[in-house]
TrEMBL record:
Pathway: Phytoalexin biosynthesis; 3,4',5-trihydroxystilbene biosynthesis; 3,4',5-trihydroxystilbene from trans-4-coumarate: step 1/2. Residues 451-528 form the AMP-binding enzyme C-terminal domain. One of its GO terms (molecular function) is (E)-caffeate-CoA ligase activity. InterPro entries: AMP-bd_C (IPR025110), AMP-bd_C_sf (IPR045851), AMP-binding_CS (IPR020845), AMP-dep_synth/lig_dom (IPR000873), ANL_N_sf (IPR042099). One of its GO terms (biological process) is phenylpropanoid metabolic process. This is 4-coumarate--CoA ligase. Coiled coil: none annotated. Residues 21-400 form the AMP-dependent synthetase/ligase domain.
Amino acid sequence: MDQLKPSSVNSCPLTALTFLQRAAVVYGDCPSLIYNSTTYTWSQTHFRCLRAASAIASLGFSSGAVVSVVAPNIPAMYELQFAVPMAGCVLNNINIRLDARTISLILRHSESKAVFVDSHLHSVVLESVSLLPPDAPRPELILITDEDDYIDDRRDFATTYEEMLQSGSEDFEWVVPASEWDPMTLNYTSGTTSSPKGVIHSHRSLFIITLDSLINWSVPKQPVYLWTLPMFHSNGWSYTWGMAAVGGVNICLRRFDAGAVYDAIGNHKVTHMCGAPVILTMLANYPRAAQLRSPVEFMTGGAPPPPQVVLRTEALGFLISHGYGMTEVAGVIVSCAWKPNWSKLPAAERAKLKARQGVRTLGLTAVDVVDPENGRSVKRDGVTMGEIVVRGGTLMLGYLKNPAATAKCMREDGWLYTGDVGVMHPDGYLEIKDRSKDIIISGGENVSSVEVESVLYSNPVVNEAAVVARPDEYWGETPCAFLSLKEGVSPKPPEGEMIEFCRERLPHYMVPKTVVFMAELPKTATGKVQKYALRDIANKMGTLSAASRM
C-alpha cells in the first residue's frame, strides 16, 4: 500500500470557514444572531459575510494581508471573523481596552492594511493612526456604526461597514486557502505582560480547535450562546466559528453588565456562555442575582476559579466547567473532564475538583508538567511543581517577526513551554499553581499566589483577590494581597484581621504580610488581573522591614 499518496480528492485544506456554508444550508431559516432589536438568520449571516468578503477583496490587498478589527461583541464583529479570511486576508482582532499608543504599535508591527472601527472607539483609533511614523503606510479605515449612532465628521473613514456590504456581492467565490497551514488569524497576547506578541494561527489549527472545543464541552445542536467573552480574545476561544458549526444563536452584548446578562439569560433562554473567573465573581455578587429558571453551562478559563466562587455561582444555577488555554493554542486544550462518581461528593469537594484544570482535550496530542531545567516529568504527587508543556495540532505557527520568542517557547524537544507552573495529580489531572513569574519565593519556599487567593476568596467580604510578591528584608519576598470588597461592606476590615484569617488556614510562610484594599483590581479586557501592575505597586511600597511586619 506504500504507493498510495494524498491527492486533491482527500487533502483539501481544512478551514473553519466551511462551517458557515453548511450552517446556511442546514439552519438557513433559524436565528443566527440577536443584538438589541436586530435578528439575522444563518442564511442572512452567510450572505452578509460573503458581501463583506467581496468588498474587502475589491480593495486589492495581496493574499495574506492583515486586516484589523477594533470592536466589541456586535454583529459586524462576528461577521468579520468569517469575512476577513474569506477575502484571503489575515484577521487581526485588537483588544478594545488598549490605549492609542499600543494600538499604534500593533498596527505598525502587523502592517495592517485596513481597520474596521466601531464608532464608539473611533477617537482612540484615529489617535493611534496619527502616532504612526510619517513614513509608515496608513491603513484604510472603515467605520462600523451602531443602530442609533451618528458621527458628523467621517472624513478620516473611507466608508462605513454597511455601505461596504452594499457594494459587495453575495455570489462572491470566497478565497479557499492554498494550504491549511496558511495563516488565518493574528492575535496579540492579552497584556498581562508588558510586551504583547503577535500569535499567528493557521486555518488548520483553528479548524481543529473549533471542533475540539465543541466536543470537549459537549455543545449540542442549536445552543443559545451569550457573548460575555470578548470575541477579540482568541476569537472567542473559537466559538465564533463553533456556533456556525452547530447552528447556534449568538446573543451579542456591547458590554458586560451583570444585570443585562441576567436579563438576556431570561429573555433568550441562554444555554451556554464563557468568561474569565472575574465574570463569575460579578454574577455571584450581583445584588439582585436570583435563581436561574433553567441551568446555564458556563465555561471559565484564564485563571483557576476560586472554589468559593464556583460554589456561589452553581448555587444560582450555573453549571461550571473549567478549561485551560492561552492565545498560543487558540482555545481550551485542557479541561476538568468530570467523572460520574464525583457528583456524589460534598459540594465543597466538588468545587475543589472543578478548580483543577484536568486532562487534555481530544484535539491536543499531549500535556505534561516538567522540570524546566532538564525537561523531565515531575512526580505525579499533586505537590511537585514544574512548567506545563503541550504539543498538538491546535498550536500556533509562531510569533510574528519574532523568531527568538518563538524558539524560546517552541523548543526542539517537541514541546511548547507555556510559562505556567502546575502539578500533576496521581490520577493524571493537571492543576495550575501559578504563572512562573508569579511564584513567590519566600525564605526559599515556593508560594503559589493562586492558593493564597483561593483562601482569601473564601472570606465573605472579599469580592476580588490577587497576590503578588513584595520585597522583604528578611525573607527576600513575602506575599502581598490586593483586595476589593463586596458592595455594601462597611467599614473596611482591618489589615490584621485579613492576615489572621489567612493565618488560620495557611502555612505560616504563605500568609500575606501586607494587605492593600482597592476599589477595583486592574484587569485586562478579558478579565485577567494585571499582576505586573500590582507588582509595580508592591515594589513602590518598598522593602518590608522586620519592624513593620505584622
